[in-house]
Write a structure and sequence with these properties.
Number of strands: 32
Structural class: mainly beta
CATH superfamily of the largest domain: Regulator of chromosome condensation 1/beta-lactamase-inhibitor protein II
Number of helices: 1
Shape: globular
Number of domains: 2
Length: about 400
């Protein structure tokens, strides 16, 4: 899939980049990924997109979390407002969060614990801007808390804090963003049901929040933490994701590691034994992307194949059965999977051709296929070939996705 922008072509092949020195110079050539272009758009270093970035939502509409001004369920995608400059989205259990290309942060849905970050506890059924800053860069929504990174590498959290999931050394909930420490080296974030995971620029892995039942923090104990604690001493952690009570990560060497609850085989180590420290999933070194649902994981390998494991009572594994799997199983034989998301007991994925596919539980219409019928194999959402992002959440009974829309 390629799309022409002023000065270049975008595909899934990364460019060759020469970084600037002291903020000056730098160059890039070759094929640009959509992800790379998005990062440059955020920094104001790429031409204005020729195609709009529209935000769509569907599934359970309670508390207004679909952002369409109502609390009604939708079994097909509905556009969130008329804005066309969305870049990233994430969904909590009953709230939603999104970023625009201009670096502004927007939230909507349930707000009983301050998870919308607007300084109130009032539910909202349409997006509201959090403050006036234009420096928000990455977001992750947990069960009832929200985590975000700014462009300066600082880490901010807000919402429910009953288990220390905000990481600010307290168990006091916050209705506005509060900074976690003073470091400027945070790089990647993930939010589980009541715990948070992050990777720093030095490749170290950190976690905090709820830990007392299954060990999702990976510290080799069952003690909850209200401040970030390093997981081991390695500096090779890369991709991360968090389920309700379990966590997964991919290292820079392409190996896959999981820990936490394992009652349905969601750790993928061919057992149902809980692990409070990271355990490797098989011996493969070609894992590329990872996403968590409530009790299932999805992963894409470097060859573009899709693999899933864990709970499967609603068909969320996508292998045509409703049998739990304690080891990764391939979903079909395609090598064109590009992006993945776990949504409670459902799953979603985007292919390289820009089509969006869903499967699993569909009682609220969260599969977006116009029905409420469960599907144990991937089904296409509409006929669009311009899907760009689908939001991951271990708790949300709804889906949010971004499409590049049509030409202006």
């Amino acid at each position: 899939m390629a799309e022409r922008y002023p000065g270049g072509v975008i595909s899934k092949t990364p460019p060759t980049v020469t970084p600037p020195v002291d903020g000056e110079g730098g160059s890039a050539s070759g094929m640009w990924t959509l992800d790379t272009v998005l990062e440059y758009e955020k920094a104001g270093a790429w031409p204005k997109p020729l195609l709009p970035r529209e935000l769509y939502a569907w599934g359970a509409g309670s508390f207004g979390k679909l952002g369409d001004g109502s609390t009604i369920n939708h079994s097909s995608p509905v556009q969130v407002g008329a804005l066309i400059d969305w870049s990233e989205a994430s969904t909590g259990q009953f709230h939603s969060v999104a970023l625009k290309i201009d670096g502004t942060l927007w939230t909507w849905g349930r707000n009983n614990a301050g998870q919308l970050g607007d300084g109130t506890n009032i539910d909202l059924s349409s997006p509201v801007q959090v403050g006036a800053l234009t420096t928000w860069n990455k977001i992750a929504a947990g069960g009832s808390h929200t985590v975000s990174l700014k462009t300066d590498g600082t880490l901010w959290t807000w919402g429910l804090n009953s288990s220390g999931q905000l990481g600010n050394g307290t168990v006091v909930s916050r209705s506005s963003p509060v900074q976690v420490g003073a470091l400027t080296t945070w790089n990647k974030i993930a939010a589980g049901g009541s715990h948070t995971v992050a990777v720093k620029t030095d490749g170290t892995l950190w976690s905090w929040g709820f830990n007392s039942s299954d060990g999702p923090l990976g510290h080799n104990n069952l003690v909850s933490k209200s401040s970030p604690v390093q997981v081991g001493a390695l500096t090779t952690w890369n991709e991360i994701t968090a389920g309700i009570y379990q966590t997964a990560a991919i290292k820079t060497d392409g190996t896959l590691w999981t820990w936490g609850r394992n009652n349905t085989g969601q750790l993928g180590d061919n057992t149902v034994i809980n692990r409070s420290s990271p355990v490797q999933v098989g011996a493969m070194t070609n894992w590329s992307k990872i996403a968590a649902g409530s009790n299932q994981f999805l992963s894409i390998k470097t060859d573009g194949t899709l693999w899933t494991w864990g709970a499967n009572s609603s068909g969320q594994i996508g292998d045509g059965t409703v049998v739990n799997k304690s080891s990764p199983v391939q979903v079909g034989a395609l090598t064109t999977w590009l992006q993945i998301a776990g949504i409670t007991t459902s799953s979603a994925a985007i292919k390289t051709d820009g089509t969006l596919w869903t499967w699993g539980f569909n009682g609220n219409g969260e599969l977006g296929d116009g029905t409420t019928v469960y599907k144990s194999s991937p089904v296409q959402v509409g006929a669009l070939t311009t899907w760009f992002r689908v939001a991951n959440s271990s708790r949300a009974p709804h889906i949010i996705a971004i499409t590049k829309g049509s030409s202006n």
